[in-house]
Amino acid sequence: MSAFHSEYLVWHWPIAFYLFLAGVSAGAMFFAVLLKHLCVKDSPHLSGYIRAACLIAPVTVMAGLGILVTDLTKPLEFWKILVFYNPTSVMSVGVMILLVYTVLMFMWIALVMRPYIDEWSEMHLPWLQKITQWLSNIEPTLTGILVILSLSLGAYTGFLLSALPGYPMLNNPVLPILFLLSGLSSGAASSLLGGVLLHGNPDSREVKFIHKIEIPLILVEIVVIFTFFMGLVLTGGQSKIAAMNALGFGFWGAVFWFGILVIGLSVPLAMNLFMTATAKRRWAYVAATASCSLLGVLMLRHFILYTGQLTIA
């Protein structure tokens, strides 16, 4: 049996990429808000890391949504999900979260980039300044709802898979928490990588701020992964078999032990601790650590999706 094919396989790699991109967007937007309000405060439009997050969040969510629509059996009928809304459908709720999140995300980004928009609109479209002023007036409400939607979107990627009752490994209440945490990790990593690529200072206060959050985030993620699999083993039956099939010898076992635990979690944790302890934050250190973290989250999405469909109830 191939690692990417089995008789029970329903969802393939495009869904894994969709889950990854949606998580990156939610995490990047979450950290952009944190950086603006708890770290940079004044002139956020000048921060390379906030600008990177404001670029990454819309690009990844639009790319993910495009992949999702393309992967549907009837992509031209996607609009029906929006018109015939079903509040009991996880897919329908997720699409609604995505849509509202996307609108508010662009409004918040416009608020961050207000100095540029106001400068340009003064000569070309003066009425735009009334809109940016209105956005500024509602900023606290807008920011609060956007943070809630970012966290909801991160958790939704896990709920989408856990709603499949026939697959014991996916039908797991810990999965949304795991996907939320890994989505936040990928958002932090993508903001750091994008920030240094946009010539942000690797020893800046933004990098130090994100590293302070990343270290406990990775530790909690490791605990949640342990809880996820211990829950399956202790449940017994097909759940235990699903865990053993995923973690045993073979391609996906190597992906988990070496790819996710070593490259995706242990290396970023060790590098974050090293940079924090030595205060040596160089371009290569920040970029390499962020790349490992992103690669680990991408492998985690594929690992959960494919191994979760190896065993049925």
Task: Explain what this protein looks like in three dimensions.
It is a single chain. This protein has helices at residues 13-40, 48-71, 79-83, 90-112, 114-121, 128-137, 139-162, 175-197, 205-235, 237-247, 251-278, 283-307. The chain is an all-alpha fold and 313 residues long. Helix 1 crosses helix 12 (283-307) and helix 9 crosses helix 10. The radius of gyration is 20 Å and the shape is globular. The model has no long low-confidence stretch (mean pLDDT 90). It is an enzyme of class 1 (oxidoreductase). It is found in: Cell membrane. Keywords: Cell membrane, Membrane, Oxidoreductase, Transmembrane, Transmembrane helix.
Give a quick summary of the entry:
With 313 residues, the protein is an all-alpha fold. It has twelve helices and no strands. The longest helix is centred in the C-terminal third of the chain and has 31 residues, at 205-235.
Describe the secondary structure blueprint for this structure.
Blueprint (H helix, E strand, L loop, with lengths): L12 H28 L7 H24 L7 H5 L6 H23 L1 H8 L6 H10 L1 H24 L12 H23 L7 H31 L1 H11 L3 H28 L4 H25 L6
Helix pairs in contact: 1-2, 1-7, 1-8, 1-9, 1-12, 2-4, 2-8, 4-7, 7-8, 8-9, 8-12, 9-10, 9-11, 11-12
